[in-house]
Design goal:
Layout lengths: L1 E6 L7 H10 L3 E5 L3 H4 L21 H19 L4 E6 L2 E3 L1 H14 L5 E3 L8 E8 L2 E6 L8 E5 H10 L7 H6 L1 H4 L4 E4 L3 E3 L15 H18 L9
Parallel strand pairs: 1-2, 1-3, 5-9
Antiparallel strand pairs: 3-8, 4-10, 5-8, 6-7, 7-9
Length: 238
């Protein structure tokens, strides 16, 4: 299995962690992250209204760069003819014991149609368990969670996601939640040994700060949006 590490060239704060990942992950290589502010004027974008439910916030340059970085990895999977690959962000850290169980589940179950999330947070409820190994469980979540620190993406899955994201209107993790739009079933592995060390590496490169008087309004809009997404649970296949 190839591992693709998304990393911003010249980011000295995260470079040491990338070196750790290069020594840890299977057949690793670094994929240069897209700098959103350099390309945002040339990207096809909509103001959150391309799909339903509408996304209530404008995309930042950092979010555009993050989405395009993942698209770059999906395209790499196709260009290299990989059956599937592990895609990680450069703030990934892993616990060796649980990570080994996760990699066994991946090896035993992944194929070209797979998209397995390896989230840092345990927030997803299972609709159906697919397989287990030790404590790790591969399952179909009812509602797909957020964040993209690590995932296994198959070649056919990469094609579906690329075809459905030629125009951007929301961040990549919220796009991935929309299985009814891109047609890709999303699975999750938990516990998986994954954590994020964003704070230790200098903070998020895409998170936007809200003014205090806007925070309540944003949280209300976010809650409404999440409630709308929850009305589209993933369904088990017969």
């Amino acid at each position: 299995m190839r591992s693709l590490i998304i990393h911003m060239p010249g980011d000295t704060k995260r470079a040491p962690n990338v070196q750790k990942l290069l020594g840890l992950l299977p057949t690793p290589q670094v994929i240069d992250a897209v700098i959103g502010r350099d390309v945002i004027d040339s990207v096809q974008m909509r103001g959150g209204d391309l799909h339903r439910p509408s996304y209530p916030f404008p995309l930042s340059a950092g979010e555009v760069g993050c989405f395009l970085s993942h698209r770059r990895c999906w395209q790499h999977i196709l260009d290299e003819g990989l059956e599937y690959a592990l895609i990680v962000e450069d703030d990934l850290a892993v616990d060796a014991e649980h990570w080994a169980q996760t990699m066994t589940l991946v090896t035993d179950n992944a194929d070209a149609d797979s998209f397995f999330r390896l989230p840092a947070k345990r927030r997803e409820a299972s609709a159906r368990t697919i397989a287990t190994h030790g404590e790790a469980k591969l399952f179909l979540p009812k509602v797909v969670g957020l964040q993209t620190v690590a995932q296994v993406v198959g070649q056919h899955a990469a094609r579906r996601l690329l075809d459905a994201s030629e125009v951007l209107d929301r961040p990549v993790d919220t796009f991935l939640q929309m299985h009814w739009i891109h047609g890709q079933q999303i699975h999750t592995i938990l516990p998986n040994g994954v954590s994020e060390i964003t704070a230790e590496l200098g903070g998020s490169t895409i998170q936007k700060k809200s003014r205090p008087n806007n925070k309540l309004g944003r949280e209300f809009k976010r809650a409404v949006y999440r409630a709308q997404v929850s009305t589209h649970p993933q369904k088990t296949l017969a």
